[in-house]
Amino acid sequence: LATTELAIEALYLLDRQLRIIEVGLDGSHRAFRGNYLGIDFSGRSYVRTAQRSGKATWSDIYLSARGEASVAVAIPFDDRVLVGEMNLRQLSDFVRQLGDGEGLVAIIVDHQGNIVAHPDANKGLQHERLAADPILRAGLSGNKVTGEMDMEGRSYIGTVTPIPGLGWAALAIQ
Question: Coil, strand, or helix at residue 26?
């Protein structure tokens, strides 16, 4: 999975002490697999939450070991936890492809209204916030909402759709 065209850049299998016991890295980093074995993830709150709750848990945005802005999901199973790390630049590349070239812009925001993925990857990497917009706040509260939005000094019609299980939202504006 870490070698596909998806935004997943690394997979880590953790033991019950939350130390890496197996690693899946993309091709350009595969030679460094041994450097990751034994790394302790117990200090990462999203991993502890997943282990304790038995449910998949997402991280906030952080800087990965490869120096990239990333998010991760921790998925518990049996007495282990699988962590998938996603590079936000790759996620931004994906949402850029969703745009139609006619002014449609797709954006993904986290539970705090921070841009996670944007056609301009730098917006996500700079953690730009959109939380002040009432349409977006309604979407982050779990409601699908359409209305007029102001972004970057321009007026748009936008639809915000909650992303189930994440507390995130997808925003399509035109």
Answer: coil
What's residue 4's pLDDT? 41
Query: Predicted confidence band at 143 (pLDDT cuts at 50, 70, 90)?
Result: confident
Three-state secondary-structure class, residue 128: coil
Q: What's the one-letter identity of residue 27?
A: G
Q: Is the pLDDT of residue 1 over 70?
A: no
Listing DSSP states for 33-79 in one string gives HHHHTT-B-TT-HHHHHHHHHSS-EE---EE-TTS-EEEEEEEEETT
- The answer to whether 157 and 147 have CB atoms below 8 angstroms apart is yes
> Model's pTM, two decimal places?
0.76
Residue 123 CB coordination number (10 Å): 18
Q: Are 8 and 1 in contact (CB under 8 A)?
A: yes
**What is the per-residue pLDDT for 44?**
96
Angstrom distance (rounded) from CA 171 to CA 162: 9
DSSP 114: B
Are the beta carbons of 26 and 106 closer than 8 angstroms?
no
**In the chain, at which residue ranges do the beta strands (DSSP E only) sit?**
8-14, 20-25, 57-58, 62-63, 69-77, 80-87, 105-109, 115-117, 145-151, 154-163, 168-173
Question: In terms of residues, how long is the chain?
Answer: 174
Distance from chain centroid for Cα 8: 10
In the predicted model, is pLDDT for residue 3 greater than 60?
no
